[in-house]
Design goal:
Length: 208
């Protein structure tokens, strides 16, 4: 569950600050606030499996995928946590698309951000001070980022990618590696099956 308030407006999030921010913003298994001094671990996580169908009006692709869950609020809405040192315009340019797609495919309506205090010549991963918390409604991100990217174009690219993968993998015992560079598809490479872990057939049958 998500905490309603944070006692400290400025706090040290420590190494692995993304995980520490999640811990500081959530309640423990008994519904009590986590201690700010408690050690943080990413050894355990909760995931949800989705069955989806993506189409372009002419063809469609059925997909199974899993998304990691950060938290659920008191209204049973999924919440994603992020930390950032970027100001809004830079966030729109650099991170808005990836954050939107991650939340969209995970069925997450709200992203909670821990804003790191800007420090001259200090990189994001060396900056552990968060002095402000805000939230973004995921549904509003495409409109705010309309000058940076077009949602329809990105969804068409995603469908074309999935369709290409489907056409290249007519059998379940094959695998390919999709390589993306500079935000664009670069190539599809056949992946040796001995290097892959395939989903158990019984697991897929359960969701069919």
């Amino acid at each position: 569950m998500v905490r309603k308030t944070i006692a400290q407006s400025v706090y040290f999030s420590g190494n692995g600050d993304g995980y520490k921010f999640e811990q500081n913003m959530t309640l423990d298994i008994n519904g009590r606030p986590n201690s700010f001094n408690a050690p943080v671990s990413n050894a355990e996580c909760t995931k949800r499996v989705y069955r989806a169908k993506f189409g372009n009006g002419i063809d469609h692709v059925k997909v199974y995928y899993a998304a990691e869950l950060d938290a659920i609020d008191s209204a049973d809405r999924l919440i994603e946590f992020k930390t950032t040192m970027l100001r809004e315009i830079k966030w729109l340019e650099r991170l808005s698309l990836s954050h939107y797609l991650q939340a969209f495919f995970g069925g997450v309506p709200i992203i909670v951000y821990g804003h790191k205090k800007f420090q001259m010549n200090v990189k994001h991963y060396d900056n552990h001070i968060i002095d402000r918390v805000s939230r973004k409604d995921v549904s509003e991100i495409p409109l705010k980022a309309r000058h940076q990217w077009n949602l329809s174009d990105r969804m068409n690219t995603m469908f074309d990618t999935l369709k290409t993968i489907k056409d290249m993998l007519p059998h379940d015992d094959k695998a390919i590696l999709v390589r993306i560079r500079h935000g664009k598809l670069n190539e599809y490479i056949e992946e040796p099956v001995e290097d892959c872990n395939f989903v158990n057939d019984d697991f897929l049958d359960f969701f069919t």
